Amino acid sequence: MSDSSNTLPHSNPQNSWWEKLEPYQKLVFVVATLAWLFDCLDQQLFNLARNPAMLALLEKGQDTKYYGGIATAIFVLGWATGGMIFGSLGDRYGRAKMLAVTVLLYSLATGLSALAGFPKLPTIAQTLHLNSLPWFEGLSPHYLDFTIFRFITGLGVGGVFGLAVALVADTVPSTVRPRALGVLQSFSAVGNIAAGLIGLGIALTAIGKNPNYWMWLFVIGALPAFLVATIQLRVKEPEAWITARDRAAAQGKKSGSYGDLFSHGTWRRHALLGMVLSCAGVIGLWGIGVFSTDLVGDIIASHLKASGADEVAINKGKQVWGSLNLLFFNVGAFLGMMAFTRVTERMGRRKAFAIFFIGALLVTVFVFQMLGKIGGRWDILWMAPMMGFFQLAVFAGFSIYLPELFPTRLRATGVSFCYNVGRYLAATGPLTLAILAKSLADKAAAKAAAAGGNVAIAKIDAFRDAASWMCLIFLLGIVVLPFLPETKGKALPED
Length: 495
Fold this sequence. Notes:
Growth Hormone, Chain: A
């Protein structure tokens, strides 16, 4: 059976987009979707494991939120680097081959992240004498190992998005491409929901019994390696990519070349503008959204401390409610990405982005300022899905829109550039939030202490304010929209 996106056998205009796919096209869609689903599962397992991992790996008294922000930034840097590398390699050597490599890489490195929690194992940091360098003075070698493994994980995680969307875009019929890519991105929320369920299960069964329960989150995250065999054995390169590769070679052009991407006026413009658009969404998520779990944890901890709960009960409560926050956030995300897909089909790409970026700005500020102040902890059940609906919806737009900006020979390269330069800049998000939150928290704590107020509440409010100021990044996505092309109803470009 052909995997060409130009074939549409036995189609009926009344059929659903899924029914319009050939069996092989369905296989490609499922494999690419699972690769991205497990990729997102890994990301969220890291968010759940971050705080307990910091408590285990750092020296007593060190700022877990600050160093957790640094670990997140290093992970995102690896993420961006991997995306830039594997996007180009995907255009050059094939989407399916490189997708298999990236899944294997992030699966193995995720499993290795758990080893940082074994105190008797020799560490990479000690072997390389990293902990003796001035930059790393005072940091445990196990924490340094953890950040190394997260960087390597990021290399694999970063490559998946551009490869998966390019593979699907080049394989499925053009008439269903937007819907297929929107659904692919929507299933990232399913991976996130699975992470929330896993985190909730571990919180209810392991906290208080096993101090290193967080390590199991990374062991579970390693399981997608089994998907590699399916990718290698069943998925072949799209005919559209093979044709474009051969045509480019005959014309003396290079596939997967950043030089070619930026030497062409149109592709360069699309790459730079698409990068700015992506930056707004990625920083919004990784510099603000993922830290809603930290806010939830602080609120729950403050409540439980006031009621006289012990440390085990506090940690369990933070994990349970953090997992619930992740679950409901991503239920909203799934619905938001499906909604974005429908809106972009009816109103166009640019209008859809404008609607949801404005929504993300307003709703995220509201949630960070009001979470826990209306219905206590129960605010999570309706505020988290509302924030997820708008924040994550724009990522469906990235899946649909970015492949429409570049020709086949540069599609994975262009998509990966847009998305992953955004990730490079997004690495500043957790650091900026951590620094801003620490600065505001120190001032608020000193003021509260001098006035005889509640220092813990003052610190929480400072974190709310820091996240709210960070929300200005969503305006960047709105500002760039008038300069981008509208691609609704147009064929994928070629040169």
